[in-house]
Write a structure and sequence with these properties.
By secondary structure, the chain is an alpha/beta fold. The chain has helices at about 10-20, 35-40, 60-65, 70-75, 80-95, 140-160; strands at about 25-30, 50-55, 100-105, 120-125, 130-135. It is built from six helices and five strands; from the N terminus they run H-E-H-E-H-H-H-E-E-E-H. The protein has a five-stranded mixed sheet with strand order 2-1-3-4-5. Strand 1, helix 2 (about 35-40) and strand 2 form a beta-alpha-beta unit.
Length: about 160
């Protein structure tokens, strides 16, 4: 049986690229709750590149486990560009990885803190590189979470290729 998380997601390409670059990755995931790490782990050879992941679904864990600033969470909230950036930086530093991926957003079915369903922030942090992007995804909870996962894998692969 094929891993459903790997369908149409560039996880195998990402694992190969990380291995070729001799680099590693770690995640801090909120709305995806570990799907990015699980997709990477589904690829044979992932143990050479996947350091680990933090599931930080609860707001307080974004601070205590991933190191998102309490002031950022209090002023900007858990669904914000700065939160995603700090999640990525926190995953990278706390897991001792070359690259960190941070994901936070609203999968639905209801809006959260004024953010519509499908609002997702993706943070990527690596050697000399940090970026955040806002995604607008549509569909049900599963579709939004899978879309965020696929985008995170694709964008990390792009960053890795761009920094060579």
């Amino acid at each position: 049986m094929t891993d459903p998380l790997l369908a149409e997601a560039p996880a195998a390409d990402l694992v190969r690229a990380l291995a070729a670059a001799r680099q590693t990755v770690a995640t801090a995931e909120s709305l995806t709750a570990g799907l990015v790490s699980a997709a990477i782990a589904g690829v044979p050879g992932a143990s050479a590149v996947l350091r680990g992941g933090l599931v930080v679904y609860a707001t307080d864990l974004k601070h205590s486990l991933a190191g998102v600033g309490a002031e950022v969470l209090a002023t900007e909230g858990p669904v914000a560009a700065s939160t995603a950036e700090q999640l990525a930086v926190g995953a990278r530093s706390r897991c001792g990885a070359d690259w960190g991926v941070g994901l936070t957003g609203v999968a639905g079915p209801e809006p959260q803190d004024g953010h519509p369903v499908g609002t997702v922030y993706l943070g990527l942090a690596g050697p000399g590189h940090t970026e955040v992007m806002r995604l607008k995804l549509s569909g049900d909870r599963w579709t939004i979470r899978i879309g965020a996962t696929k985008t995170a894998l694709r964008e990390l692969l792009r960053c890795l290729r761009d920094t060579r």
